[in-house]
């Protein structure tokens, strides 16, 4: 079994733009390709886990989420970096689109996406990490027995200013590359 680094998408791997609804709005952070490539070389599986309630709110459809992930994947591969899996939750408990209105197990901080990735990729969750720009990403790590890191990019700076009771990050990092450096030190 292999350890993984679960990455939030918006605000962690790519620039936060609110609800991403057009491919031309996708902008990787300058360090994203290098950070993922370093994790690949260190033997980690790299998995994107992202809540995409815009589907439930009829702002875009699931096909667009797939197109966005294919675009991100292609950009990363151009730089020699590989995402081993993309997982997303299209649901929201208050969704206007009835088909997506549910209180599901895949919406972060619940562990459904991580459990699916574990089955698909044979992951060692006890040696895994989550990196994201929201407390719910850190909480996700706590919920599956991994370690959660909060980055200050995206919504991270605002999240740092509003700590969530009972949710403690292993590290608050300025960006994904700093988080990856810390992960490698912990894994050594």
Written description of the protein model:
The protein has 188 residues and is of the alpha/beta class. The chain has a single domain, classed as Rossmann fold (3-Layer(aba) Sandwich), CATH 3.40.50. The chain is 37% helix and 15% strand. It has seven helices and six strands; from the N terminus they run βαβααβαβαβαβα. The chain has helices spanning 32-41, 53-56, 62-78, 112-121, 135-144, 156-161, 176-187, and strands at 4-7, 45-51, 85-89, 129-132, 147-151, 171-173. The chain has a six-stranded parallel beta sheet with strand order 3-2-1-4-5-6, sandwiched between helices. α1 packs parallel to α7. 43% of the residues are buried. The model has no long low-confidence stretch (mean pLDDT 97).
Per DSSP, what share of the residues sits in E-state strands of 2 or more residues? 5-15%
DSSP helical segment count: 7
Low-confidence stretches: none
The separation of the N and C termini measures: 17 Å
Number of strands: 6
The structural class is: alpha/beta
Please describe the structure with a list of short key phrases separated by commas or semicolons:
37% helix; Rossmann fold; 188 residues; globular; single chain; alpha/beta; 6-stranded parallel sheet
